[in-house]
Fold:
Amino acid sequence: MEGPCRAWEHLRPDGATGMSAWSDHAAHHMSVLLDPGGPFYNATCTNIAIPNI
Structure:
């Protein structure tokens, strides 16, 4: 998820196309990632390492 976060921070300030480019790109990838049969289908909320920020 670091890549999408970096893309968000890069595109966010661009008033012309930033948000539209982000939403078009993210919509496709998030639908795949969050699909019930997607790559996280078997993920659980146990044993998650939460970094100290």
Q: What stands out?
A: The radius of gyration is 14 Å. Residues 18-33 form the longest helix (16 residues). The mean pLDDT is 77. Helices lie at 2-11, 18-33.
